[in-house]
Amino acid sequence: MLTKKNKRMVRKMRRYIRTFPLTEREINQMVEDITGMAEEAQERNEDLETVLGKPVRGFCDDLIYSVGGIKAPGGRKLIRGTSIYFQLLGLWGIVGCLINVCFLDGERIHALRILAFSIVIWYLGHYGEANCNNTAKTKQLTAGIVIYMGINLLMYCNEFIFAIDKGRTFLRTSDFPILIIGMLVNLGPAILYLIGARRNRPAEKRMEVVDR
């Protein structure tokens, strides 16, 4: 019987493996192999992480490739990192809007619009983190972030027009640094997410692009 520590590690590895487009049979086979290694390590009083010989995810990537023939997508780290960022950004917006609507005297309609957009941001991050290892979801990931960037640019249109109208005067106002910070907060991670999604394409498709 596995120790609590090894059980947690096996569960963690199983969750990671399940994020790849594998059959249930392949997943069960890999989990059985990992469980067997954990049991053998316990019998020798060795730490499972030491027996693996590399980081847990790196070991899983090798195992997934040997069993399912699937290579870990190149852009998964970018997608996962920016997805976590979007989840936190979305939660921050949701909590702020709920506080504004429930306890403050802010404009309700505007707060509800921001709340809806914050939920979209959170879901974008949740979906990205859940599918960052699945190359079959590349189109959905790309479409989602492109729509998000498009909405952001539309929201900034009024500020762009105002800035152009004011010219150099706008650069000396407090609105200018707020505009720049807002664009960096919203569009900077989105660009990284998009790069990750593009790198997340299946290896065969990337080869076709190179051959052209």
Topology:
Layout: H1 4-17, H2 24-43, H3 48-52, H4 56-68, H5 76-103, H6 108-130, H7 138-166, H8 168-171, H9 175-199, H10 203-211
Helix pairs in contact: 1-2, 5-6, 5-9, 6-7, 7-9
Radius of gyration, taken over Cα atoms and rounded to an integer in Å: 23 Å
Q: What is the number of beta strands?
A: 0
Fraction of residues in helices? over 70%
Strand coverage percent: under 5%
* Gross morphology: elongated
Q: Roughly how many Å apart are the termini?
A: 54 Å
Structural class: mainly alpha
**Major β-sheet annotation:** none
Name the helix and strand elements from N-terminus to C-terminus, one letter apiece. Answer: HHHHHHHHHH
Mean pLDDT: 80
Q: Helical segment tally?
A: 10
What features would you describe in this structure?
The chain is mostly helical and about 210 residues long. The protein contains 10 helices and no strands. It has helices spanning about 5-15, 25-45, 50, 55-70, 75-105, 110-130, 140-165, 170, 175-200, 205-210. The chain is elongated. Mean pLDDT is about 80; it is low at about 205-210.
